[in-house]
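Researcher: Here's a chain I'd like modeled. Treat it as a single chain, no partners, no ligands.
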Amino acid sequence: MKKLAMALAMVGLLSGAAFANQCPLLIKQVMDATAGKTDDASKKAVSLANEAKALHDAGKHAESVAKAEEAAKAINLTLKKK
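Model: Modeled as a single isolated chain. Structure tokens:
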């Protein structure tokens, strides 16, 4: 049972690190796709991407990735993940 708990803890730690590296990449894709655009969908995507950055900065990486995906969906962008 201890081995299982340790294995799950390690998976949790490693997945957190993976999300931490993923956030800036996803946010950048949204920001690049909306650069210079002023339509409502682009404005919404930028706002959501800024929220994703704030979540990333707060250490909430899974939530940041979800917010970045929501931003991409607003502009019909398919994100490229690592």
